[in-house]
């Protein structure tokens, strides 16, 4: 069976799409297909790879608009998934392209430094005693230690696509959560303050980073855990945290959202007052009535039980 690979090319500022045909063998990966093209059809085609064992993360690309680890994903599987004989291969999104499928990682590594990505051990640890912890403590963060910096989460991050200046790459938040959850860390507050300044509360929660992570690390979940940690460490004095707290309080008290007071609780009276024209329009069309008492959900007891169950489950993690 033959398959057509439509590869996005980029050389010295010139962009084009070039088609190649490969004979699909059982077990052939996208990386093998790219290697065959380079070795037998077009030596000018450029891409990156190293371990070919799903460990280094160097070979990630986009296939039909989705980030994939090219040394891991099978051509046959993709042809079956998309019900086609043509696959479009392009460089990862939200990166500067250097050449063909090669992207520039230097700015990403520079941004990673914002979360202070090194462990600062507690004073009781010394060269003589070591830096030990229990298996239970290790289990709290070992999943996040599996990040291979492939860039798949960055490629599909909608917030990054909109604005990279006020929001870190998802893998940086994964690194931060790994350090915050590590029982050996001397100052988790240092990492938390850094991620707050770097846009923690600006996440769209679209879940694309989690959906596309080839290692199943759940970057979106790491971001939510970091948000929860800001409350535990008394660092929730910002609009995003106040907004989340206001929603939580409303759900606890009435089982519904009191949108007439949400902005006041989140931003304070002064900033909320700047939204008065919008509030007046909402009142005019019947979307909000400040004179009516906020209704209580008739299933409020069930809602509160669900909240308690979710909180208990979060603590068990």
Please describe what this structure looks like:
The chain has helices at residues 30-40, 75-82, 106-112, 135-139, 152-155, 158-162, 170-180, 188-197, 208-212, 219-232, 239-254, 259-273, 276-284, 300-316; strands spanning 2-11, 14-23, 60-63, 66-69, 86-90, 97-99, 102-103. With 317 residues, it is an alpha+beta fold. The chain folds into 3 domains: 2-103, Ubiquitin-like (UB roll); 106-232, Orthogonal Bundle (Fumarate Reductase Iron-sulfur Protein, Chain B, domain 2); 239-316, no CATH class. The mean pLDDT is 90.
**Straight-line distance between termini:** 47 Å
Q: How many individual domains?
A: 3
Number of strands: 7
Structural class: alpha+beta
CATH names the topology of the largest domain as Fumarate Reductase Iron-sulfur Protein, Chain B, domain 2
In CATH terms, what is the architecture of the largest domain? Orthogonal Bundle
Number of helices: 14
Helix-strand topology string: EEHEEHEEEHHHHHHHHHHHH
Side by side, the strands of the main sheet go 2-1-5-3-4
Largest sheet: 5 strands, mixed
Helix percent band: 40-55%
pLDDT average, as an integer?
90
CATH homologous group name of the largest domain: Alpha-helical ferredoxin
Rg is: 24 Å
Reading off the top of the CATH hierarchy, the class of the largest domain is best stated as Mainly Alpha
Poorly predicted runs of 5 or more residues: none
> Strand-residue fraction?
5-15%
* Oligomer class: single chain
Outline, from the CA principal axes?
Answer: globular
């Amino acid at each position: 069976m033959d398959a057509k690979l439509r590869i996005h090319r980029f050389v010295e500022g010139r962009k084009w799409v070039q088609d190649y045909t490969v004979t699909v063998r059982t077990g052939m990966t996208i990386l093998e297909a790219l290697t065959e093209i380079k070795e037998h059809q077009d030596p000018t085609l450029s891409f990156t790879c190293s371990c070919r064992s799903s460990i280094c993360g160097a070979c990630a690309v986009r296939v039909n608009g989705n980030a994939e680890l090219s040394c891991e994903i099978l051509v046959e599987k993709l042809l079956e998934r998309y019900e086609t004989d043509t696959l479009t291969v392009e460089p990862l999104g939200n990166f500067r392209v250097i050449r063909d499928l090669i992207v520039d990682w230097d700015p990403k590594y520079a941004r990673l430094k914002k979360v202070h990505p090194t462990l600062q051990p507690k004073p009781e640890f010394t060269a003589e005693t070591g830096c030990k912890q229990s298996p239970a403590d290790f289990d709290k963060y070992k999943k996040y230690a599996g990040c291979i910096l492939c860039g798949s989460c960055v490629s599909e991050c909608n917030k990054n696509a909109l604005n990279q200046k006020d929001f870190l790459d998802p893998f940086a938040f994964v690194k931060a959560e790994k350090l915050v959850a590590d029982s050996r860390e001397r100052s988790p507050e240092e990492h938390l303050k850094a991620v707050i300044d770097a846009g923690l509360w600006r996440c769209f929660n679209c879940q694309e980073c989690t959906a596309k992570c080839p290692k199943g690390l759940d970057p979106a979940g790491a971001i939510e855990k970091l948000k929860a940690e800001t409350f535990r460490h008394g660092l929730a004095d910002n609009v995003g945290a106040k907004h989340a707290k206001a929603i939580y309080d409303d759900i606890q008290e009435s089982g519904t959202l009191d949108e007439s007071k949400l902005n006041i609780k989140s931003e304070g009276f002064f900033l909320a007052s700047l939204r008065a024209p919008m509030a007046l329009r909402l009142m005019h069309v019947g979307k909000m009535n400040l004179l009516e008492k906020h209704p209580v959900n008739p299933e409020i007891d069930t809602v509160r039980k669900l909240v308690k169950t979710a909180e208990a489950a979060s603590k068990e993690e």
